[in-house]
Amino acid sequence: MDVDLEIGGTDQTFNMLMGRELQKKIRNREKYVLTMKMILGTDGHTMSKSSGNCVWLTDTPQDIYGKLMRLPDELIPDYFEVFTAYTTFEIKKIKTELQKPDINPMTYKKKLAFEITSQLHRKKLADEAQREFEKVVQEKAIPHNARQVELLKSQWKIVDLIMRFSLAASNSEAKRLIRQGGVLLGNRKVTNPQEIIKIEKDTVLKVGKRNFLKIRVI
């Protein structure tokens, strides 16, 4: 109750104003309220921990850059406005450019991702994150630092293999990625969550766009 200023999204305006009245009545003290534009998560929905659509201050540069590159195109100007030092004129220009049919939104999305990653980490690390994204996502290459594991058995239920090496946050996410065609074993797409796979030689398991696992059976 003893605060001078409370800052929150526009969705919390009522709650903050009620707190202002309570503080005035109970503490006989004024409290100012500052509302900010409500920013949606990286999937275009309300931010929440359970939805996995947030960028955390503790995220690695690669994770921050990758998450922001999944941002819906229509949210690019809002993120520039709230999270960067771009001027109103510059943001207005970005909005205009994004309306043009010959402009690829990824150009501005990469600028945004680089800008925010640079703020939270060093520019050098933002450069590395951008190069890694371009290599892995755009050029479909295997990252140089992909994890390597050796397995004693060659047959695995695909979901169990994914979860064994924490390539998905949960069983349900692993199954969703499989059904959506986001899991590759070598060059083969695995689409059945119940499938028992057999690994007969050195291969690479790809889960989602950025999770790679180099596998060797011994």
Automatic annotation (TrEMBL):
Organism, scientific name: candidate division WWE3 bacterium CG_4_10_14_0_2_um_filter_42_8
Protein name per Swiss-Prot or TrEMBL: Tyrosine--tRNA ligase
Reaction catalysis annotation: tRNA(Tyr) + L-tyrosine + ATP = L-tyrosyl-tRNA(Tyr) + AMP + diphosphate + H(+)
Keywords from the UniProt entry: Aminoacyl-tRNA synthetase, ATP-binding, Ligase, Nucleotide-binding, Protein biosynthesis, RNA-binding
Keyword Aminoacyl-tRNA synthetase: yes
Gene Ontology CC: one annotated term: cytosol
Family the UniProt entry places it in: Belongs to the class-I aminoacyl-tRNA synthetase family.
Chain's gene name: tyrS
Example GO BP: tyrosyl-tRNA aminoacylation
Single annotated GO MF: ATP binding
NCBIfam families the record matches: tyrS
Cross-referenced SMART domains: S4 (SM00363)
Its EC number(s): 6.1.1.1
All copies of domain RNA-binding S4, residue ranges: 157-214
